[in-house]
Structure formats: structure tokens, C-alpha cells
Design brief:
Length: 508
């Protein structure tokens, strides 16, 4: 078939392809949704180690860091930033382009030669090119401008990798802080929920007895109603506390990304003593300014923004292009069907020089903006450190007060139980005493968990890391040991040992 006859067929095929490209988009089916939900659920809980024993605090932190989806997302973003940096580094290489193709025309090319002075035709019409020929080539080109822009882009990608790593550190620190707060509340819930349920059952039973005594006239109506009112208040208060305890367990399970309905038992070991802060506020502020991921991220962002300025300036440079190519043409009229060519070209866009004053103004404004943002963030960080230290000392004092309150309510309960008689009033007093005692235990557990949370916020406010570099390669037990070692080491070195000055503490 002549090559010219292929043109209508090629044109028809192109038109058909264009018509197909404007078809309406296909919506997802219900089966697609079902498959997507199944895939997402598998991604949520895939390859998790089963819970086979009571979970300690450090194991809870290990599970949260290993399986928490927010942290896993930051890990992937950090890896993606590193891959983009590696990809951008290839843009600095020269371009090496290989080509091959066919060329054709419907008639012969050719021409005549006309005299310049007299305008007479000096040659008969002739051609030196075949109608159809094969072409191929290999070209290498390098541009100084493209290299400079790609270099600065690669530097910028490197800063973005460091920024992503700082965001990962921050998420890890926040996860540990949330786990520390939720774990001790959940452990208090595990200790108190059975006793709260028992007391609720006894209170409801006493409330039913009071209603029967009222209906049978065994107690004066006013006394019976007052008795019922006291029991209802006790039930309401206990129900509120029970809800708080249940929410704590649910929050901890969510932080560890446990599947719904998973049984979770916490290790009921003796609670550790609250650390005594023995570091000066000035030293803690200095550590925060050195370690906080947010400040480091802003510092890297300033350097990344400066790369944009450098790129804008580089685009005003003269562009130097080097070219080399090897070519082949099957045209039989050519004397040399194979040849190579080289070239050097220097060019500059003169109008881009007019952008220089605007670029310089933008450079100054960008630098001032970046510095102001970082300084404002640093001031907020210093405030967090001061408030964190103050909050922890207050929380530690609240634990001591809760211990004393618990001791008094326990003595009152023993007294009420010893003085119990058969009348309704004594039973009510026992229930009230048990309710107050459980409430004091709840307040004590809450005070201790708040003190642990305050310590976690203080730990977080100075920007201390919480885990080793690699997480995915460790099982839960190994990772928990590494986290425990890292946290205790940093606490001892950074917060529990004063290098100079007077330890920061509240005045009595």
C-alpha cells in the first residue's frame, strides 16, 4: 500500500480516538465501595501483633508509635520527600535524546538556481531528496541555566526532606504525650470500674427499698423523699465518673489503633513516683530553642524559601548551551548519510534584568517574614515551657492533696461501716461514705494522671525525642524497651539533673 494512502486511515483513527476521549467519567459502583472499605480496614489493622498480655505504659507507647496512622502517614511523607529529592537530582544531568522516524511528502522536493544580478535561471529543476526516507539521531545537550535551576531545586528538596523529618518528630512527641495522658486515666478506670459498678448496683437497690418504704408508709414521706434524693444524686455522680473512665479506655485503644472489640488489659503495676523537676527554667528554655521540631522546621523553611530567590536570580543569567549530535538520513542523494554536529550558544533575556529590583525587595521581605515567624514561634515555645513547668508543679501538689483527701474519706468509710445499724439512715450513710471514698479515689487517680500528663507536656515542650530511629524493624517488646531507655535517659540528663542554678519549683 502506498504511504500516501495511509493518511486518510491515520486521520480517521485520530478522530475516533478524540471522540472516545470525551466520554463521561465512570462512577464507582457499590462493589467498588465495598472493595475500597475492605482494603482500608485491612490497611488499618494489618500486621498488628495481637495483645496477649497486660499492656505496660511503654508497650502502649510502642504500639501507638508503630501502628498509629497519623505517625505512619508522617513516615510516608518523609520517605516521599526523600524520593522527590533523589528524583530532582537527575535534573542536573545533561539531556541525551535518541530519535528515530520516517519522513515523507506527496511530491518531489527540488528547486532551481536564479542569478542574483540578471535573474535568469541557471539550472534546470532538480531534487536532492527522496520522497520517503528514514531518519535517526542521538543528541546530547547541556544548559548552564537548567543546571543552575536544577541545583537550587535539589537543595530546596533537601530542606523539604529535613522539614518532613521534623514534622515526623513532632507527631511522635505528640503521640507519646497523648498516650501518657490516656494510659494513666485508663489504668485508673480499670481499677475503679468494677467497684463503681458494684456501688451503683447497691445504690439502685437502696433506692428501690426507699421507694417501697415510702409506698408502705414505713418512713415519713419527707424523710423518704430526702433519702431518695440523696441516692439519686449519688447515682448521677457515679454515672458521670463512670463515663469519664470508659472514655479514657476508648481513647487509649484508639491511640494504639486496636481493632474495635479488642480486649485490652493494662498492667496494674505499682505506679511510679512522680519525678522531681531539678532543672532551671533558663536551661529548659535553652533546650526547647535547640530541640523543638517546630522551630527547626521554620529554620529549614527559611533556607528553602531562599532557594526560590536564588532560582529567580539564576534565571537572569546568560544561558550557555552545549550541543552534540549524531545523525543518520537514508536519503540516497546525500554524499554523507552519517554525520555528527556540535554547537555552542550563549543567550540572555535582557527584559528579565528588569526584574532584579523586585527580586531584591522580595528577598528582604521574605527574610524578615521568615525571621519574624520563627521568633514568634520561639516566644510561644518559651511560654509553653514556663507554663508546663508551672502546671507540673501544681499537678504534683494536687496529687499530694488528693492523697490526704483519700486518707480522710477512707477513715470516714471505716467509721460508717463500724457504726452501721439496721435502720435506713445508717445504710444511707454507708453508701454516702462509699461514694465519697470512690469519688476521692477517682480524684486521686485523675490527679495522678493529670500530673503524668503535665510531665508529658513539659517533656514535649523542651522537644526531647522519644524513640530510636527505626520503628518498623522492631517488634513491640524490643521497641518498648528502646522507648523506655530513651525516655529515662533523656529525663535524667535533661530534666532531673540541674547543671547550674537553682531548681525550678513553686514557692510554698
Amino acid at each position: 500500500m502506498p504511504r500516501l494512502a495511509l493518511r486518510p486511515l491515520t486521520l480517521t483513527s485520530s478522530l475516533l480516538l478524540c471522540a472516545c476521549s470525551v466520554l463521561p467519567p465512570e462512577t464507582y459502583t457499590e462493589q467498588d465501595k465495598t472493595d475500597r472499605i475492605r482494603f482500608d480496614r485491612q490497611m488499618m489493622y494489618d500486621q498488628q501483633e495481637p495483645v496477649t498480655h497486660p499492656i505496660s505504659f511503654y508497650e502502649a507507647a510502642a504500639r501507638a508509635l508503630k501502628y498509629n496512622l497519623d505517625y505512619r502517614l508522617k513516615l510516608m511523607e518523609s520517605a516521599l520527600a526523600a524520593d522527590l529529592r533523589d528524583l530532582s537530582s537527575h535534573e542536573m544531568l545533561p539531556q541525551l535524546v535518541a530519535s528515530a522516524g520516517l519522513a515523507g511528502r506527496s511530491n518531489d522536493s527540488g528547486g532551481t538556481s536564479v542569478g542574483i544580478e540578471d535573474g535568469e535561471v541557471s539550472l534546470r529543476p532538480s531534487t536532492s531528496e527522496e520522497r520517503y526516507r528514514d531518519l535517526s539521531g542521538l543528541g546530547l545537550s547541556w544548559s548552564l541555566l537548567d543546571f543552575g535551576v536544577a541545583y537550587y531545586r535539589n537543595q530546596q528538596k533537601g530542606d523539604q526532606v529535613l522539614m518532613a523529618e521534623e514534622r515526623r518528630r513532632k507527631v511522635a512527641q505528640n503521640v507519646l504525650q497523648d498516650v501518657r495522658s490516656a494510659y494513666w486515666r485508663a489504668l485508673g478506670a480499670q481499677r475503679l470500674l468494677p467497684e463503681v459498678d458494684k456501688l451503683l448496683a447497691r445504690t439502685r437497690q437502696a433506692l428501690d427499698s426507699a421507694r417501697q418504704a415510702e409506698s408502705q408508709g414505713l418512713l415519713p414521706r419527707q424523710q423518704a423523699l430526702a433519702y431518695q434524693r440523696a441516692l439519686i444524686d449519688s447515682v448521677s455522680l457515679l454515672n458521670q465518673r463512670r463515663q469519664d473512665l470508659e472514655f479514657a479506655r476508648a481513647e487509649l485503644a484508639a491511640l494504639m489503633s486496636l481493632p474495635s472489640g479488642s480486649k485490652m488489659e493494662l498492667a496494674d503495676t505499682p505506679e511510679p513516683k512522680l519525678p522531681i523537676l531539678a532543672q532551671t527554667i533558663d536551661n529548659m528554655e535553652q533546650m526547647a530553642l535547640e530541640n523543638r521540631p517546630e522551630i527547626m522546621e521554620e529554620w529549614y523553611r527559611k533556607r528553602a524559601n531562599q532557594q526560590d530567590i536564588k532560582i529567580a536570580k539564576a534565571e537572569m543569567w546568560p544561558n550557555v548551551s552545549l550541543n552534540w549530535g549524531y545523525n543518520y538520513d537514508s536519503n540516497q542523494y546525500l554524499y554523507n548519510n552519517h554525520w555528527s554536529e556540535t554547537g555552542l550558544q550563549v543567550s540572555i533575556n535582557l527584559l528579565k534584568i528588569l526584574r532584579l529590583p523586585a527580586i531584591q525587595n522580595m528577598e528582604v521581605s521574605q527574610k524578615v517574614t521568615d525571621d519574624t515567624r520563627r521568633v514568634a514561634l520561639s516566644m510561644a515555645v518559651l511560654t509553653q515551657v514556663r507554663v508546663g513547668a508551672l502546671r507540673y508543679n501544681l499537678a504534683a501538689q494536687e496529687v499530694a492533696f488528693a492523697d490526704e483527701s483519700l486518707r480522710v474519706d477512707q477513715s470516714l468509710l471505716h467509721y460508717a461501716q463500724a457504726a452501721r445499724t439496721s435502720d435506713q439512715g445508717s445504710e444511707l450513710e454507708v453508701i454516702r461514705s462509699e461514694g465519697r471514698y470512690l469519688l476521692s479515689r477517682y480524684q486521686r487517680e485523675a490527679a495522678y494522671s493529670q500530673a503524668q500528663a503535665a510531665w508529658g507536656r513539659l517533656y514535649n515542650s523542651v522537644g526531647l525525642d522519644v524513640q530510636p530511629e527505626a520503628i518498623a524493624q522492631h517488634d513491640i517488646a524490643t521497641l518498648a524497651q528502646a522507648i523506655e531507655y530513651t525516655i529515662k535517659k533523656q529525663e535524667n540528663q535533661a530534666l532531673l539533673t540541674s547543671n547550674s542554678g537553682v531548681p525550678y519549683a513553686l514557692a510554698d
